[in-house]
From TrEMBL:
Pfam families: Nup188_C, Nup188_N, Nup188_N-subdom_III
Compartments where found: Nucleus, Nuclear pore complex
Protein family according to the UniProt entry: Belongs to the Nup188 family.
Organism: Sugiyamaella lignohabitans
Predominant subcellular localization, coarse grouping: nucleus
Name of this protein: Nucleoporin NUP188
Amino acid sequence: MNALLLRWFDIIDETAFLSKGMEKFTPQSQQVIYSLGILISLELLRLDQDFAMESMSQYSYLQKPDVLVKLNSILGVKIVDYGAASPLLLAWSFVLHAFSLALMGQDNDGDADSKTGLAYNDPKYDDFLCQVLPKYKNIDDSNRLDVVEDLGMYSGGLASQAMKLGAFTKLAELFETLPQKLEYASTGANLLLTSLPYVNMTESIARVIHKIISPFKEVSEMFFLDVFADRALTLSKAKVPIAISPFLILGQCFGADLFDLISQMNSYMQELPKGFRDYDFVTREKTSQIELTSDLLLFEHRQEDGQGGFVLPAGTRGELISTAASSGATIVMWNCDYNGWTFLGRILEQSDLDGTWGQLELDILSVINNTLETLLERNRLDDAGELLNFLSAGLGQADIVALITRKLEDAFYNRDIKLCTAGVKFLTLLIAVDPRRVWPYLGRTKLLERNGRGGYLGIILGAVEIVNNDFEFTIAVIELVTALVRDSLASSLDTTISSKVRSEVLSKFTRHLIDVFESFSYWRYSKPEQRISIAISTLNLFSLIVHSTYRSDGATPLEEKVVATLSRASQLITNEFLSTAESAARTLSTILGAIESAAKSNDVLTGGTNLLDDHELIFVNIALQFSSLLVRVRSVLQLPCSYLERKLYEQSPDLVLIFLRYFALHSAVVDVLQSIIGGYWPDEQPSLLAHLGTQYSQMLIGCLGGALTTSLELDSTIAYICDYFSTIIESKQEGLSILLLSGKDTRNTTEKVETVVSLLTVLEERITRTAGESSQTKLPSMLADKMLNSISLAHSTWTLNAAEDKTELCKVLISYIKESLDVDEAVSSNFLLTDTSYKISIAARAIRIMSIQLYKSPKGPGAKAFLDFLSTDNNLIKYTKSFLVVNGFRPSLHGNLKRNFDHKWPKAPLSRYAATALLCNRPYGVEYLHDLGLLDIVLQNHVVWVDGYRGEVIEANVNLSYVDSQMCRVKSWCGFLTSLVLTASSLGDKNMLEKLNSVAAIAIETNLDDNLSLPFFRGIIKLRLDLAFFVSYNLSKTKMHTPTEQQLTTTFQLLADPSIEFLSAAGTSSLVLAGAEPGPEPGDSPVFYKQLLKILNLQLENISVDTGGFRLIQTIHGILDVVAIRGMKSVTNSIQENPTTSGVEDVVQITMILRKCLGFHGVSSLYSNLSQLMTDTGCDQAVMSLFAYSLDLCIVEDDPVFGELALIYLLEWLSIDIMADSLVLGGLLNVLTESPLARAIQHGVIRSTTHPRLFGIWTKGMLTIVLELLKQLGSRIVAEVIVFLNFYSAQIESALRYWLDPQVVISLSNIEETYQLYLLLDVVKKLADPDQTRVIPPFTDKVSVIDSLDYFLSHQRYLSSRLVVTTAEEQKLLLERPSNEDSTSVLAGKVVDQLADLREFLADSNN
């Protein structure tokens, strides 16, 4: 340390106190160097060290006489006449004086030597003393005391010389030159504290103290802990008001304690009026103590009302301080108690009345401001209000606020910049105390633009600040606007202040500050720190406005948001900074220039070559954060790409350089990169890889990989990198995505490097490496969750080939999955529940990775490890039972919270505080859904929020986190089981397939156990049902689906549950149910029943029961009742209201279920009851009505698909005789003959080639039904059938004569129709009596048709040329080829066979 000190002062000596070689620097730089030289020297002299000999550090330079000699030769001799070094000379004088006192033994317990009179008489200092005091040639015991005393006098001489050179003035200039820094202020404060015992406190010295310590509260607090500083303040207080300025100036640094100090003043120093003798001496012995014999007016009354004076009553005692012989003036300090704040307010009022506001009044206003500020910082809001009351107590008609604002208007007009600044600061502080006084004033003040006339804001800036190069007023205005914005947020629900006034005031200030931000970097500054202060504070303000506006309630228009008063200001900012025009370059120049300069390590605002200091780093960080905020807001608003984003793409190499050079900016840089690629893009998104180029893309990946690898990187930065990685994978940045995943540059360029580090590999290695570490070094749950999310997204892309050997990673993933199974669901702490949420989410990510591994590489080692794990200890079933369940949801908490909150604040319900997509990923925990930060701001003044609702919102957010993490795990597990089904099916793993039967059952049973009425779980319920169907369907394809009676019963119970609302939702489009299409009640009904119908179908088809037991028949009866009858009626009703393809699907599923149910043994016992149910429910009439009017219910034009489906459904029932009888009695044949659809067929000439749907209805429906009725009821319905034949005679005749045309086209459908018609005619003729036979229409005879058939059969090549495909089945047959020949299709052969069969049938029946 001493070597460093000597080397430094050698430099001081060699350069004549840093004056040699300074010519190459600018005058400003020279001043900075001089100033820093003083501070470095002061710091090396260690003025705060212990000077006592017995406790002095052995390493102190005071222990080295040779060092003292060297220092004195420089500081005590060579710079003694150098004014610029006077602070250093003063400091050295204090060091010598303290050293002399130490030698004398003062301030210690050392006993003086009897010979020398000194406590310390070590001769090692003799040479030093002789050189300092040359008159002493030798020092011995006889003169040692004199020498030490002379040393003290020598130091006093140096101090006097320093004061003559203006040491304190130079010290103040020093701090004017240098930026405000805590370390500088601490060094200056040490010199000041050292000097206090030796100087009288004057106004000039007080201002130096204020200049140095006031910017830093910690320095101020430390300063007044010193006994001499405290004494200086006390003495200054005693001189009030005759010498009030030092007290006011020091008081500005004293903090909140000044409030009490001034409130309880106990003395008043006065110069007695000339000739005043109305006092007596208290005692003859003490002639300095006096007592008033009459009242004494200390402060004049107001002329207007005669009030406001300060009068001392008779009997008040005081003490005579001094009497000036020349003037005869007598100074007395009266002992009286009074409130100093009231006195100060009275001074301000009188000065206002006299029109004499000057420096004293500014000091008073500064004291008020500083005291208010410190009171508010300590949350002493009541005392702050009391302070204003004290100040107003002695005033006349107006209070202190009115007085100051009136003077402030005068200051605006007179361009009094100091008073303007102090007044604006007062308004800023007043907002926290009484905002109702500030907003109306600002609404009417001439400071802002009014009625198209510019305000004083612009005038003062242009005419005063820019001219003087001093922008304290603008900085004060920015602070005022920031306070206004915060108050506007806090009073969003307060109607006592007009929201229109608040919105207008904020928008006008914002417009002005946008203009300031566009220009401030071009101004000259006498105080360079003001430039960076404006930059930081302005961007912070803009960020606050924009973020507060868009952070929540994204769906509500701006003017209706909770924070609507910020809407106009926010729009001004976004319109300016998110403009697409090139003109935005001026507005954005500071931000973009900061990025460019930071990349080059230049001064971000002046373009100098200096490295960035702390404040500049803060500004760059804020600029980057503001940029990413703006980009995300553009995506929220879905605006076109802005000029800012285009420039950010262009400057992406600069962002990489900033990441490389500045550790503190890592998070901000990655956040910007993520925002520009993860946003909304109406057009094609630019390629970030193309903008980065080869060099910078490699550099970026290297930097990101290094950050992920090192343990020194902040967790927040790693989280940002993971989010960035995930965003790239999900975006359209394919080239960059491949580079991140594989390290390979796929671009067609000669500059590319073949491979770099793969970020995916780095992530996997970090996860693998840290998983087994101790709890102290293990990855935080939030970080592990983000990493695994990135890895899972990477594995899910097709960019990666089949999974490599990930055995170690899989082991880690399995451990995470096992850990989530063991989480404690009974934890009550919000912190622990949040951590549990992350653990469950981590398991969900791990499961997703495993499912991808299984899908891409089912035989790989990773997949095998997980399959082996699941095959052990019945883990598949155990984990399925756990991972398909969602526990812990508290519906009463959320329901009661919403109801009570909305009742308390009806104009701003809880839904208005839902967080938006402005935040990339909502973290689990207290901020998950409801924006707690915004709620805290908006409701901070509401006691019921702080003491009650806040805790409930936190619990709700934490509970939703916990539930949502489980829902994510359900989704992942369902995805994994889907992959597992496919893998087991392809590998033929019967053991696994058998277990999957239980998985499907668990998926259904889990839904039955849930509260199905909660909308929150609808997505998960449907996901489980999708899983159950997928598993069941794939098992049925492999003949491994073996549902039990219990599983069938469970599925039916779930379908019949009222919460499923099957009967009300059946037939409705899923898009309508989801609210995507208009419907009766969009979004109100679930769509679970569709999958349940499919599952029911599969279970009925594959159920492992040969005979129908009683329990099974009960279930079948329920299915027929609820699904086949009541469900069918609901479907038909829904179709008639809104025909959709969903209705088609439902009818098909119900018909299939009906067919399978009727096929069970033992169902015949239910026939009678089922028939009654059909009649009682009106299902039969509903289905027949659906058939009748199906032409009006076409989904596709002229395609009455519902008519065909209705007949197919009825046909299933006709296999039951009692049902056939019931349907005939219900008018089935009448519907078949007299409905609108029937008449469309009765016109005839309905062919499979021209009217395929009507033809299908005719052949597969009508004819089949009539034949089935004849089979069931026989001659009882012959008359009705003959009527049917007469109605359809035209169609029948055209179908039979069809064969007589040699050019006819032939299909299997035509052959089937002909067969059915002749069969029907034959049956009717056999059952009919002679009278009935006579009314049967004559049709083409069989002989003619036989002849035609013979012709086709004898000319099979020609027959093949007349074939036509009319159904999907025929198309399939057309494409098939028989194994024995290649020339003829299977279809042709089948047609020939069926024609031959038809010919044989006709010939036999004709005989």
